[in-house]
Amino acid sequence: MAASQTDVSAISDALRQAAAQADNLSISQLLMDTARVQKMTATHQKLHIDYSRQLLTLDTLHNLHRLADATDLRAHINAMFAGEKINSTENRAVLHVALRAPKSASIYVDGVDVVPNVHKVLTDINAFTDKVRSGEWLGATGAPLTDVVAIGIGGSYLGPEFVFEALRMHPPAVKAAKGRRLRFLANVDPVDVARARDGLDPATTLIVVISKTFTTAETMLNARTMRAWIVDALGPDAVSKHMIAVSTNLPAVQDFGIDPANVFGFWDWVGGRYSVSSAVGVVPLSLQYGHDIVSEFLAGAHDMDQHFRSAPFDSNMPVLMGLVGVWNSTFLGHATRALLPYQQALLKLAPHIQQVDMESNGKSVRLDGSALSVPAGPINFGEPGTNGQHSFYQLIHQGRVVPCDFVGVIKSQVPISLDGEPVSNHDELMSNFFAQPDALAFGKSAEQCRAEGVPEELVPHKTFPGNRPSSSMLIEELTPFTAGQLLALFEHRTAVEGFIWGINSFDQWGVELGKVLAKGVRKQLQMSRKGASVSGFNPSTSALLKKYLAGSVSS
Ligand SMILES: O=P(O)(O)OC[C@H]1O[C@H](O)[C@H](O)[C@@H](O)[C@@H]1O
């Protein structure tokens, strides 16, 4: 994939020049150009995005598209879908798209079509989860397993929780989940263990241990803790009825003592943060909602995969969002971006996308190991609106500039209209969704404040600079299908940005060092609990450890 370096440099120079002059642009004026506004939208089925509030002229947009071409974006996308080993530091393919491909598709890795294996696992999951849900699979006491604790962390937790929450109040999902509970246990903190099993009875609980590697320290300790909870209550033989696993490491699962017949596999070409469409998400979500709902979710993700793969770039949602991201991050120099869903069901979207994006693109070197002049991916954060408005929006209106992605839903999953109220609850929510992007874009001048009679000494405090970029996305309805589309859309935005930056978005070496250092601390704590003194750490860590071991901050 030989991108033309000359073209990339020339186009980047043009974009840098445009960025240097961006202060002279006014979003409020750009918004008066109807043709531009129409051009800066894209609709795909029940999703619509409007990025006309970006500090972006049509000329600059054109140059961003040229940058995509010069960096061979199309070839990178094709290579990903073709199963090429684009995760070069781990020599792996990147094929989460294969997890939602239809049976009729063929995708080869090392000469093997992976699609039949994907569908074999899905069929096995459907058979197992049907048995649990119907009461054919019973616990050790003969009671049905109505509750599930899904143990896993990072990619083995965040995606499944996002989908679980997105569908919790979706009426068909509510019906399908009747009488069932799904809890997640991610943190190794004993408080999280207590929260996960609070009110649950081992006799009616199924534990799903989810770990790609089956070596993650937190997950393994939580698995042992929950196994002890089952064994203490029901005896050792109960484990085979009450514990199942999802992993790529079958020997380790067997060593742990889970029946190999109750393990659902996936593959090294599924990155942890891209694994919600694998057994990682499908097992807990099917236990809760049944496989029809999960199939719709996978179909939605597949639909977005197809759109990403085949739509022309000027109407390709993930590509357009990625180009906007590159513009804001690399050229305008914004270090952060906010994801602001005006939809409580999407409360776990931002936490999930934080991992998808920051673990993928939080890199400082290119694929060839050479240093980037500026780090690649931005800091992502977010909260549902309107909650965020009462929390951090002060900063995004009058403090630092944070490009925002607003997400709104047209039809509520559960509409409420109170007699006597001027608007429905959902209209109230959405009034804020429509108002905030304009508040950011237009701001409020000192003159406007004065015209309103604001006392002169308060004018600087009540002025809003405006000219703050955002995009607004509308989803017709939040369903399993659109939740799948949304997930894949954000996954692919991250890939687009990474491809243009020339980095490997699919490894995560940056998480290793802390894990290694924790081993030394763990050993020290173990020895110190038997009387050994603290040694081998720097003065700061030694002092902190001594206080911890002494149980007091004053020692
Ligand atoms: O699924 P596991 O192997 O337990 O890994 C869980 C998580 O831990 C790792 O540290 C990585 O940062 C994540 O990408 C991964 O999803």
UniProtKB/TrEMBL annotation:
Gene Ontology BP term (one): glycolytic process
EC number(s) stated in the UniProt entry for this protein: 5.3.1.9
Reactions this protein catalyses: alpha-D-glucose 6-phosphate = beta-D-fructose 6-phosphate
Keyword Secreted in record: no
Keywords: Cytoplasm, Gluconeogenesis, Glycolysis, Isomerase
Claim: Isomerase is one of the keywords in the record: yes
Gene Ontology annotations for the cellular component aspect, listed alphabetically: cytosol
Main enzyme class: isomerase
UniProt xrefs under HAMAP family: G6P_isomerase
Protein name as it appears in the record: Glucose-6-phosphate isomerase
Source species of the chain: Gracilariopsis chorda
